[in-house]
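Write out the 3D structure for:
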Amino acid sequence: MEHDLSPATLAELRRPRPYPAVSLLTPTHRREPLNSQGQNRVRLRNIVAEAKKKLEEDPAVTRDRRTDVARQLDRALAEVDLTHPEDGLAIFAAPGEHQVWSLARSVPERVVLSDTFLTRNLVSAHTAERPFWVLSVSADRVTLWSGGVDRVTEERAGGFPLVREEPNFDPERQERVGDQPSNFRDEDTRRFLREADTAMGALLRRHPRPLYITGDPAALSLLDEAGSVAGGAVQIPHGGLANGTHEAVWQAVLPVLEEEARKSAENVARSLESARGRKEFAAGVDELWQSAREGRIRLLAVEENYRITVRDDGNHLVVAEEGELDAREDIVDEIVEQCLETGAEVRFVPDGTLGDADGMAAVLRY
């Protein structure tokens, strides 16, 4: 399943496809008591069946394409891993291709047939997740971890993990018997960490994310001297994680992430309060949607679990019930994607942060 929404990947998803390009969205449950593989699996099978029914009933879909896309849906279904579900799934299928995306944000259940894939929920979930990299450094191994909402997992990409292959190389033995003053002073170690810096720099150019680096203070210092990536990263002086478990890495970075999130929420609240005084504040889904379409939003703040269903009465968006005719259940994601398209900054903040703004507010450009 896919997780990393790089700019290049998003551009590829948005390119036109031969009709029909099927976008299938479904919420999943990650926590007890609702988290059961059986419950998620039944929901998923049902929505795939709904997609196939739409293919059967659409006169614009030829028999060959219907067979092809149905086969792609079956292959996508087989690839779904519900062992550790997140909050939503997106399946994209078109003639000759399919993709499965796991989302750390709930999505409305829907099936859409078009000539492009529906990406707004994917974009919003990626923005809310705030993915990051963790690089764990030691004298003989550098391990890369991919981080999200509540976990990190080892990422085998970009040449990582890097392992220093040398005959009889044993840092603990060398330090114990005094073969060298420090594991981080010899030229071979410097060269090894320069390789790690180069590999990480290349990965960041392809997949830009915030970077956190863990390691002994000596390792962090040498990596800082060796190249450029450490200078733009948050350094966490915690050794032993290059060969550690994902849970140990998560526990090491969690306090840093929580402190950053707290400061970010405070900064957002101050920006919104200042905007009120300058008459550059906007709130309410209708005003925010209009402002987003006009490109007037500079900063959009969204509470993490805020959802609202609306419909267009011809002049304004008004609150509607789920399932109501012409209801738009993912208007929040629409606004998020529109703001990002016009260069706005989007911040997700803890529930309750925005007070009387009712879940979503913005600082306007003018």
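The CA atoms of residues 308 and 329 lie 7 Å apart.
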